[in-house]
Amino acid sequence: LACSHHHCAFPVSRNGLCVWNAATAQPLYLSGHHYSISALSFGNKINPLLVCSASHERVIVWNLDECMQKVEEGFTPRGIVIGTLLGMVLHIRFSPDDEQVAVCAGNQIYMLSAKNEAILAELDGHLAPVTAAEFCTWEKSMLISVSEDRTFKARKLYLSLYIFNFFNLKVWDYSTSQLIYQSGIITAFPLLSLLIDEENKQIITGCAEGQLWIFSLISDHNYRCVAHIDLKKKQEKFCNKMWKSGKEIGEGQNNSKLCKTNNMRPEGSVETSLPILLIEHCDFFVCFHNEENIYSSQNTSYFWIGTSTGLLIINLANLQMEALLSYRDYSDLSIQIARSCALTRKAANGKVLCLIASMFEDMIAVLEVNLAALVRTQHSDFLPCGNEKSLSVIASSYIFSFLTNHYFRVIGYFCKLNYFPTGVKNTVKDKPLVFHNKIKSSGYTAAPRMAMFSPNTNLKKKEVSKWKTSCKCKNKEYPLESYPPIKYEKEISVTCKPTPIFCVQYSGDGELLACGQADKTVLIFNSNLIDVHSVFSGHDGAVNSVGWSHDRKWLVSASEDRTLRVWSICNKEPALILGKEKFHKTVRFAQFYFIDTFILLCCGAEFHLLSFHLDTTKDDLKRYKQRSVCKLVQKFPMTSAMEITSLSAVNEFYSYIVLTAGSNRALEVFDLNAGCSAAVIQESHVRSVHQICQNKGSSYSTQQPEAYNVFLTTAAGDGIKLWDLRTLR
């Protein structure tokens, strides 16, 4: 993410770029990358305003004025490619004069010209990926960098300029570079962020565990550490102070959990890290130019700290926290954990523009923070001006002006949706990004509902029928007027010798049937059972579960050999393999979840939530190496159970609910939106439940929407029961 003045920049559809003007609420879409954009940065000058985007295969500089002119003329805007095939880029930064760009790719830093494709210098020395780099404004050609190797380095770049009169060609010689200083290992955690304090001639760096270090850049100080800040302790101290003084830090919904720490964590909570994603200058006193009760000297510097859970303001003079904006304290803000964030350095009309991206969703929130009101409501040295409310959150798209007596609001959300709900205008259907006053969907794009089992189903019949006809893939529905099937129509033998079939699963459209067998294979049949569509082999044990993806292109299988495999229907080789080292027990009940965003599986008495990326392409030199990746998000243990005997979750639409049954005969409901167990039904059956079945059809396909996702059935050795999730009976 990147912010500058009234502009915000962020990736869309992975390889696209959107530059959004907050003053006019007009998005500008730029395309030129073939791979996912991994780094963005605005230039330092306003005219012309430049933005640089980087991906695995190229680095592009865009002139926004020229791009807007091209769009108005009906042409496709193009940028200048200044670098190709540099590797995975984690950070980019313009030089103070916008003539060069520092690109942090892997363990190296490439100095590129901002006007043409030319590598001016290659700087190495770090032992791990470089996460941030900044130019020193008062020391010409000085560059500071931090890395995951937990060190920072200072370099002096010697510049020679040669001007050839013919063709007006300029050649910049960066052939020599000098390493001025290299620090030792600062911390046990990777360094993620960096800021140069020009006024005090210091650098500030933050790590993944919520620790800040301040080093002096004055020539005779030899880069000594002048301060160390533990943000966890500062935040705890600040919250306790606010609680004792009776002040509120938000809407008041979660203040008891946030403030009443007293070194005692609530039962069931866990201690989490506090990664420092951003360090930025705070335009503090500009927002208080009309205030007479400023409590400290105006020579004091302030800076923003962006973490995964909120925004903080730190006073550099006394190293104390002045204000805290926690995401989880505002119910109207859908994002509670941020993956990355960006802030505007200069305040406009006393307000700062903030951009945060969600950790688990394809969602970006645009926030507007009234800095004066934020500090005034949380600090006793500032007197309140009138009857000011502590918070007002209004989702808006095109109205940028707002009442100044609120310190925080959500301007809007940028969300990548899988389908467009009824009511969205046709003019935005072809765009990969939508921006509405209020986003209505069945998933995480809306604020978390307090009533989990009361989904919005007040759809008119005309709207439902219209959505059905526009859907390309129509699922086969069982005719309600027909009697239940009591006779089998066809019987086939899947193998030459008797082989147990452990699991069967229809694809969502009913066209294919997957069978997991004891002979370690997975068979795919057509729905009419005439012939075998595909045979997948590779497991070393019996296949105990299979699951289809929402788009019917992938199949996940789990086996008694403690492995999990994801297969492409078009390819007999597995796209992803998770080996025995990942699981301590047999993997069961594997399935896709949240419209193919995650994979759920059971292992012993807990189920795992995995995020993944599938890539079936092969490297000619390393064909044996899989390019698909998978990462554990979280483990959820059942309460007092030795083993999970059944699991059920919806993948056809967005749902937070995961149902599990254990060997202790209990039925447990998990809310993954809250990340915890929501309810436990003890002694649900006399025997252990071996099957949970719930309505997994589309939320638009049911003829009785009030019953949507409310009822479920459980099967055990003593019979079958029908449950109502609203009453848990």
Automatic annotation (TrEMBL):
It comes from the Eukaryota. The gene is Wdr27. SUPFAM superfamilies: 3-carboxy-cis,cis-mucoante lactonizing enzyme, Quinoprotein alcohol dehydrogenase-like. WD repeats lie at residues 536-569. This is WDR27 protein. PANTHER family: WD REPEAT-CONTAINING PROTEIN 27. InterPro entries: Quinoprotein_ADH-like_sf (IPR011047), WD40/YVTN_repeat-like_dom_sf (IPR015943), WD40_rpt (IPR001680), WDR27 (IPR042411). SMART domains: WD40 (SM00320). Keywords: WD repeat. The keyword Mitochondrion does not apply.
